Amino acid sequence: MAISFTVVAQCPVTKARAGVLTTPHGQINTPVFMPVGTLGTVKAMTPEELAEINAQIVLANTYHLYLRPGHELVAEAGGLHRFMNWQRPILTDSGGFQVFSLGDMTKIDADGVVFRSHLDGSSHYFTPEKVMEIEAALGADIIMAFDQCPPWPSSREFVEQAVERTTRWARRCKEAQLNPSRQALFGIMQGGSFPDLRRRSAEALVEMDFPGYAIGGLSVGEPKEVMYAVLSQCVDFLPADKPRYLMGVGSEDYLLTGVWFGVDMFDCVLPTRIARNGTAMTSQGRVTVRNSAYARDFGPLDPNCSCSVCANYSRAYIRHLVKSNEILGHRLLTYHNLYYLLKLMEGARQAIIEGNFVQYYRRHLPLEEVDKYFNREE
Amino acid sequence: MAISFTVVAQCPVTKARAGVLTTPHGQINTPVFMPVGTLGTVKAMTPEELAEINAQIVLANTYHLYLRPGHELVAEAGGLHRFMNWQRPILTDSGGFQVFSLGDMTKIDADGVVFRSHLDGSSHYFTPEKVMEIEAALGADIIMAFDQCPPWPSSREFVEQAVERTTRWARRCKEAQLNPSRQALFGIMQGGSFPDLRRRSAEALVEMDFPGYAIGGLSVGEPKEVMYAVLSQCVDFLPADKPRYLMGVGSEDYLLTGVWFGVDMFDCVLPTRIARNGTAMTSQGRVTVRNSAYARDFGPLDPNCSCSVCANYSRAYIRHLVKSNEILGHRLLTYHNLYYLLKLMEGARQAIIEGNFVQYYRRHLPLEEVDKYFNREE
After folding, report:
1. Which residue in the set A40, A43, A327 is minimally distant from B43, CB to CB?
2. What is the pLDDT of residues A182-209, one digit of tens each?
3. Contact A39/B330, CB-based, under 8 Å?
4. Count of alpha carbons within 13 Å of B363, Cβ hemisphere only?
5. Measured between alpha carbons, how far is A195 from B164 in angstroms, rounded to an integer?
6. What ipTM does the predicted assembly reach?
C-alpha cells in the first residue's frame, strides 16, 4: 500500500478528527489544506517558501499538465516532484472536473470524454485508462479516479447517470492503475444534492476498497445550506479508517465546517487567487488592500499574524504594489493567505487533539453555521 | 558629508579601480551593479532575496514614485527604506530621463519641465527645486540632480543647450538640496557624443564640487562604438577621488568595458526585463529558455552558476513556467540574472584587487572591444 492513515484524536462533540497520513514522500498531519499548484507551481510561490510556511502537500492538475508541458516530458524530467523541486507529497486530480468545465465541445461516451484544449482547440480523449497513464507519469503520491462532476443545479436523472458513470470509471481506474504500491488511488463520490445517490455512490466505491475517498460535486455553485446539508450526511457513508477529501473548498467557514463534519483533506485555489486580486484573508475577515481606504494604512495585513509578510510590510506598501501590478504584491499576498489558512488548519488539529475543537470553531465562526445539521450534546 | 569614497586598488593596465563607498545605510564595494526597483520593488524579488545574492544598493525612480504612490505617502511611511523594507543603500534618479521619454506633450522652459503623466494624462511640473523636494521625501542615500538627457542622435545645438540647462539646474539642485548631511547629491554630465561639450559639462559640475558624478546621455540608442569612444574620453574629465556612475548600462560587455574605462557604478533594467521575457544571462551567453530547443533540456540555466535557481531548477521547467506565464518563471529568471551580474561585478572587483583585471576581461570579452580606445602597455 502506498499510504496509511491513522486517526490520532477524535473530537468528543463533533465528527472532527486529527490524523496522520503516511505517503511515499512523508507524513501529513490532518486535517490539512493543500495549496493548488495547477501547472506544477503554486502561483507566485517557491517550494522553499511553501516548506517555510509548513505546506505539507500540494495539488497539481492532470488536465493542465497533460496539455502543457505534457506528462511524458514530466516523466522524462524524473516525475513531478523532481520537475518542480518539491520533495513533499503531491496529489494530482484526474482532470474530470476540468474536461467538463474548461474543455470546449465536450462529448461524453461510455468510455470517456472527447474535449478540446482550452489552449489551442486541439482534440483529446480522456478515458479512465488514459488518466491512469497520465497520473502514473506525473508520479504523485495520491492520484484521483476519473469522474464526472455534474454542474449545479442538475436534474436527478443527470446526476444519477453521472454517479453510474463515475462508479464504472472508478472500477476501470482501479484495474488500470500502474503503480499501486507507490501511488494511492482515491475514489470520488458524486451524487449532487440527492442523499440516496450520494449513498449509492459511496457504497459502490467503498466496496471497491480504495485507500481514500473524495467528496466531489460540491462547492460548484450551490448555496451554502445545500453544501452543508449534503456534507453533514455523506461523510457518514465513508469508512472512518480512511482519509476523506472534500474537493475545491478553501474559505475559512467551509474548511472549519468541513472539519466539523469529519473531513480530513481540502484544496482550493481561493487563497492564491484572491491574493492575486489584492485580497488578504485575515483574523479580522477579508481585507481588500487594493481599496483606497488602505492607501495610508501603515499597519500589517493582519495584526494577529506572525508571518514574515506581516512582520515586514504594510498594507499601504502592498496596496501600492497591487495597484502597480507588481509581482511582489502577488507574492506577499499569496504567502500571507496560505500562511493564514495553513495556521487555521494547524490550529484546528491542535484543538481536536486538546479536546476543544468546538471552542476553536466558535472563535472563528458562529455556531449557527452548523447547529441545524448536527445534534451537539454539549 | 553623507558619503565618502576611497579607491582601494587601481588596475596597473586599465583605468579600472576598486573602491569603497560609505553611505548612511552601509558600505558599497565598487565597481557595483545596482538593480533597478522602479516603483520601490525590484520586479519579482523580495529585499531578502536581494540581500541573499549580495545586492549592495538598489535604484528607485523619482518620476514613478512621485506619480504612484506619491512622495508624501512614502515620507509618511518613514521613507523609502522603511516603505520597501530595504535597509541597505538606495539611489534615486531625478526623473529627468523619464519626463522626456515617458511623459507626453513635454514642455520645457528655463525653470523646468511640464509633462503629462503616462498613467492618467494629468499635468505636472518638475523644477530642480521640486525634484529636490521629492528626493528628500523619498530619503535615498544618493540622489541625482535634475538633468536634460538628449535623445540620440541630436544636433550639436540641441545638445549644447541641454548641457547648459543641465548645468544651471545642477546648481539650483545643489542650492535647493534639503538634507546634504544625509543624502549625497550627484551631478549628471551630458554632452552627447561631442567631446568638447562633455568636457564643458564635466568642468562646470566639478567646479560645483559634487560628492559624485554620473555620466548621462549614453546607452540611449547610439552604436556601441560611439558609446565606447565617448566613455573612453569623458571619464578623464571627472575627479579620480569621487565615484563615477554610468547610467542605464547593464549588459556584460558594457559593464566590464565601463569598469575598464574607470566607472564605479552602473544601473539598468536589462537583467530584470529580459528575465521577464524568458531570457537568462549565462556564462555561455544569453539563453532564451522560452525557445522550443530547451523544452527537454533538464540541465540548469547556466552550468557554471552556483545560484539556488541553477542548483534546483531545469531549463525545461523554467521554460514551462515562462510559456505558461507563471510568476515563478519571472522570479527564477530574475533571481538568476541578478545573481549572474552581481557575481560578474564581484569578480571584476576581485580581479582589480589581485591585479589581473585584463585577464578577467579577456575571459569574458574579446580585447578588440576596447583596444582601439585605449593604449594598453601590456
Report:
1. A327
2. 999 999 999 999 999 999 999 999 999 9
3. no
4. 10
5. 84
6. 0.97
